[in-house]
TrEMBL record, chain A:
Domain of life of the source: Eukaryota
Organism, scientific name: Leptobrachium leishanense
Domain C2H2-type: 84-107, 111-132, 148-171
InterPro entries (alphabetical): ZNF511 (IPR039258), Znf_C2H2_type (IPR013087)
Protein name: Zinc finger protein 511
TrEMBL record, chain B:
Annotated gene: TMCO6
Originating organism: Leptobrachium leishanense (Leishan spiny toad)
Domain (IBB) ranges: 5-59
Name used for this protein in its record: Transmembrane and coiled-coil domains 6
GO MF annotation terms: nuclear import signal receptor activity
Pfam families registered for this protein in UniProt: IBB (PF01749)
Entry's Gene Ontology BP terms: protein import into nucleus
Length: 261, 530
């Protein structure tokens, strides 16, 4: 139907086909245009215009899944049950996908000091600053340092309580938002040994999640903790970008619990 | 985790059954659209449920006591928790169970607790429960969600793609439940969180974020509230990035973002800004790529991508001319792509034909470059072949022909070559007022510029065929002008009978004004490669 030169313009690498440069423009003549009943204008249609009805209905049929033929069902290959290798974790999995889910939600954004796990990197960043950064504590006395938890909100507050009020009032957050627990027992975690701090960490994580972990075999956890590879002292000083992860149970924070030994 | 789209029919249905189902759905949707609450929710199913027959819903019925017992088990039980949650999730497909569940005290908080827990299976199963609940159109169910939205949004910035995807679909389904819910979602930072999600490399997450965004932008308060927020969050760049598709497996993602863009542009609040950022050349490039693909093969669902993009182009055209960017649309690939879509889709998807014609009609308004290309590439017969498709389509085609006719004698000569007068007169009797009006408008243009057509008309049909319209108020002016034009052209005929017979029409009409100019125009009109 289309002339070959147009088809080649569409599929070829030539790019723009400037019609204004082609010798095909016909002269316009409106001398007899005194009486006109037709007014050539470009028409806009608002989204709710009935002109769009058929197309919109087609779109909604697609959303409702009526248009689609049966798509392939992804079979999850079962593997023999294995345990998460992360220190202190005792969950078992029989598909790689569920393990991946577990790893991504629980072991990606983990505080290295208190082992709390957070749903997002932003919440972890805020946690590390507020809980384990001494400089932050000093600064907080002088200026507003408590960042709002909401993505895109740049407000900062003098205390975590002020922030909490802001979250409830402005962002309609629930008053018991479970990723905004106030800091308790200031500084105590630092004095305990590495092993103990991990256990404490686990407890506090449970407290923050308000869900009990299924009972963990104590001895297997200890074995696991002893076997877990500690980062070399050379690298533990550098801050590793969060997208890079060295093996299982990579955690972030100002120091690794192993170092406190 | 769960990557199956809702099929509606999980046992293989016959083609007739499919068609019947579709017709029923279509009429429901049409009614909903007229009543201005056309909303849809998307349901993803896991493979286990997808294999279960649809009418098994009966077996998931639960009594109120059973629901309360399940909640109790979930709160205090330990080992059987996951089993109880699975039972609950299956039963939540039923509307009555949904209501019983949300009415039970603390049930949503319990679900939030499981959702944020550290046990993977519980987390996965609880987001599926939320997903089932989000399918409800009952306001009591959607109200109960208010307690969970801050967590759903928080997990959008998480590191687990499947979890993010699930949260996005739950939110996307919730969005249509009213302005109050949307307000809360906006206050809780939904838009910046969506902007983060658009950077995900995961295709399923991208499709889900496109879906959620399009649901948000389709809401009625979008022009005042949502479009500005989307602009502020720099989401437009993300949208423009994702409507580009390099391979066929990106079509599903592109579809969602293209609809988002359509809702933005049809809101008509930032169109001038978008044009100044060269949106038009980008859209033309994209449509040209898609049409090149269409020429080779037609992947399924591609019309769902083309439709919103054509709407974007057509709706931007009025602002293109007022911002002095008309040169941008002189790229012939746009016109060519529109004709490729028309050729490919006019049978199966008539709405696409209508919308492409609308774009062409906007392109040809006062635009001799495009209009000349329509003549040069012999597109008039193609357009005219759709005159009998439907009144709406005929009106659209006639509008394009009017745009051409009103550019002057050369254009009218070309229309005359395609026997336009005969077509127009046969359409005069249409029941559609717009079609009749446009027919009369074209006759005015033609008779003004081609006196021999006026003479033909008088000889072959006569003014009597205009009798039925002369007393109707909406056609009165047109009929009067046509009568005047005819008598004027006949008076010329009496003055210069010889020259009329010689058929040298350009010379005949315009000699008194500018003989040289008319000679050239007449000649070029005849030497066109028709």
């Amino acid at each position: 139907m289309l002339p070959p030169e147009l088809i080649s313009a569409l599929s070829g690498p030539a790019g723009v086909l400037n019609l204004a440069e082609l010798p095909l423009i016909q002269p316009v003549d409106r001398r007899h245009d005194t009486e006109r009943t037709f007014n050539p204008v470009r028409v806009r249609f608002p989204r709710e215009h009935e002109f769009f009805e058929d197309g919109d209905v087609h779109r909604q049929l697609y959303l409702k899944g009526i248009l689609q033929s049966i798509r392939e069902v992804e079979e999850r290959t079962k593997v023999s049950e294995f345990r998460c290798q992360t220190t202190g974790c005792a969950q078992f999995f029989d598909t790689l996908e569920s393990y991946e889910h577990h790893y991504n939600t629980l072991h990606r954004n983990v505080c290295s000091i208190c082992k709390r796990s957070f749903p997002s990197a932003r919440l972890l960043d805020i946690h590390i600053l507020e809980w384990h950064d001494t400089f932050f504590q000093l600064m907080a006395e002088k200026e507003n340092m408590y960042q709002c938890l909401v993505e895109g909100c740049l407000k900062k507050f003098k205390t975590s309580q002020e922030r909490k009020d802001h979250l409830i009032k402005i962002h309609l957050y629930p008053s018991d938002f479970r990723f905004d627990k106030p800091k308790k027992n200031k500084g105590k975690a630092k004095q305990v040994s590495g092993q103990l701090s991990m256990e404490l960490g686990e407890e506090s994580a449970v407290e923050s999640m308000e869900i009990c972990l299924s009972s963990v075999n104590e001895s297997s956890r200890n074995v696991n903790a002893a076997n877990s590879p500690g980062p070399s002292s050379l690298y533990s000083k550098c801050r590793v970008p969060r997208t890079i992860c060295f093996g299982h149970g990579s955690v972030r924070g100002f120091k690794h619990p192993r170092k406190t030994k | 985790m769960w990557r199956v789209r809702k099929q509606g029919y999980k046992t293989a249905p016959g083609l007739e059954e499919l068609k019947r189902q579709r017709r029923i759905q279509e009429s429901v949707l049409r009614k909903a659209r007229r009543e201005q609450h056309l909303i849809s929710k998307r349901l993803l199913l896991d493979e286990a449920t997808a294999k279960e027959p649809l009418d098994d819903l009966e077996s998931y019925a639960l009594s109120e006591e059973q629901v309360l017992q399940l909640i109790l088990d979930l709160r205090h039980g330990s080992t059987e928790k996951i089993k109880s949650l699975k039972t609950l999730r299956r039963s939540l497909q039923r509307e009555d169970v949904q209501l019983m569940f949300v009415k039970a005290e603390g049930s949503i908080q319990l679900l939030v607790g499981l959702f944020t827990s550290s046990v993977t299976e519980l987390q996965q199963e609880s987001i599926r429960c939320f997903h089932e609940l989000s399918q409800s159109y009952n306001s009591a169910v959607s109200q109960s969600f208010l307690a969970a939205t801050s967590y759903l949004i928080t997990y959008l910035s998480g590191s687990c793609p499947e979890f993010t995807e699930s949260c996005l679909y739950v939110l996307g389904n919730l969005i249509v439940e009213g302005e109050a819910i949307r307000n809360q979602l906006l206050l809780q930072g939904l838009i910046p969180a969506l902007a983060l999600c658009t950077q995900s490399p995961n295709m399923n997450v991208l499709e889900a974020v496109g879906y959620t965004l399009s649901q948000l932008l389709a809401s009625k308060e979008a022009p005042e509230k949502i479009v500005p927020a989307v602009l502020e969050a720099k989401l437009i760049e993300g949208i423009l990035h994702h409507i580009q598709f390099e391979s066929e497996d990106r079509i599903r993602v592109a579809v969602e973002f293209a609809w988002s863009l359509h809702y933005i542009i049809s809101s008509q609040v930032i169109n001038r800004l978008l044009i100044s950022q060269d949106l038009m050349p980008k859209l033309i490039q994209l449509l040209s790529n898609i049409s090149a693909l269409v020429l080779k093969s037609t992947p399924p669902d591609l019309e769902l991508l083309i439709c919103p993009l054509v709407r974007c182009v057509a709706n931007l055209l009025p602002d293109v001319s007022t911002t002095g960017n008309n040169f941008q649309i002189h790229d012939g690939r746009l016109l060519a792509a529109l004709f490729v879509f028309i050729e490919q889709y006019h049978k199966d998807h008539q709405f696409l034909l209508a919308e492409c014609l609308w774009a062409i009609s906007n392109l040809t308004v006062e635009e001799p470059v495009i209009a000349s290309a329509v003549l040069h590439y012999n597109m008039v017969p193609v357009l005219m072949s759709f005159l009998l498709t439907s009144p709406e389509i005929a009106a659209m085609v006639l509008t394009i022909l009017c745009n051409l006719a009103y550019l002057g004698p050369v254009y009218c000569e070309h229309l005359k070559q395609n026997n336009i007068l005969q077509c127009v007169i046969s359409l005069l009797g249409s029941t559609d007022v717009h079609v009749t009006l446009r027919c009369l408008d074209i006759m005015i243009g033609l008779f003004k510029h081609c006196p021999d057509l006026a003479v033909d008309f008088l000889n072959n049909y006569g003014l009597k065929i205009l009798e039925p319209y002369k007393n109707e108020i909406q056609f009165h002016d047109q009929v009067q002008i046509i009568r005047n034009l005819c008598s004027m052209q006949v008076s010329y005929l009496f003055r210069y009978p010889f020259e009329v017979k010689s058929l040298d029409l350009g010379e005949f009409v315009y000699k008194p004004v500018n003989p040289d100019y008319c000679k050239t125009t007449a000649r070029s009109a005849w030497t066109l490669p028709f």
